[in-house]
Design brief:
single chain; about 170 residues; alpha/beta; three-stranded parallel beta sheet; two-stranded antiparallel sheet; 6 helices; 7 strands; about 35% helix; globular
Length: about 170
């Protein structure tokens, strides 16, 4: 664990451009355990699978898409935040930690499980997680994962049967 902590501190300070991500990937593939808990820059905790691109980025940098984060940081307690395609819940957790009411839509049951784990980890019961996708039309579709190293890289394809996996 000490080696992981030192490596993480080093990587969080490494410039992301100019090949920094290559150094990160090279080092991380050689020493990382699969699941780690970290505190994000906004102070909430997440259990993250470091083999997943988005989750590893959150673990190493402490943030995901800071432009969106700046908007969420303006939420006031009691306001409603709807997270469409919540992935593992980074933005949902950020909004709930600020006291917002959260409805998170995520069609991937594996991602839904991660959101629920992270909500419990932070004692944030106010996140309403719905295991469903959103689209322009109603109906059923088959969830297809398109990238093994990115749990959130999925698409909904029209199908004859509903996704019947429960979180």
């Amino acid at each position: 664990p000490l080696l992981i902590d030192v490596l993480t501190a080093f990587l969080r300070r490494l410039p992301r451009g100019a090949g920094g991500y290559r150094v990160e990937r090279f080092l991380w593939d050689r020493v990382s355990p699969r699941h780690l808990v970290c505190r994000t820059r906004d102070g909430f905790k997440m259990q993250l699978n470091t083999q997943d691109f988005v989750q590893r980025t959150i673990y190493l940098s402490g943030v995901w898409d800071d432009d969106v984060g700046r908007v969420i940081r303006q939420l006031q307690p009691g306001q409603l935040f709807i997270d469409c395609g919540a992935n593992v819940g980074y933005f949902s957790l950020m909004a709930a930690a600020r006291g917002a009411r959260v409805i998170a839509f995520e069609p991937n049951p594996a991602c839904v499980r991660e959101i629920l784990v992270n909500a419990r980890l932070n004692e944030l019961p106010g996140i309403d997680v719905r295991c469903m996708g959103l689209g322009a039309t109603s109906g059923q579709a088959e969830l297809t994962l398109t990238n093994d190293s990115n749990l959130g890289a999925a698409s909904l394809k029209p199908g004859r049967r509903p996704l019947r996996a429960s979180p």
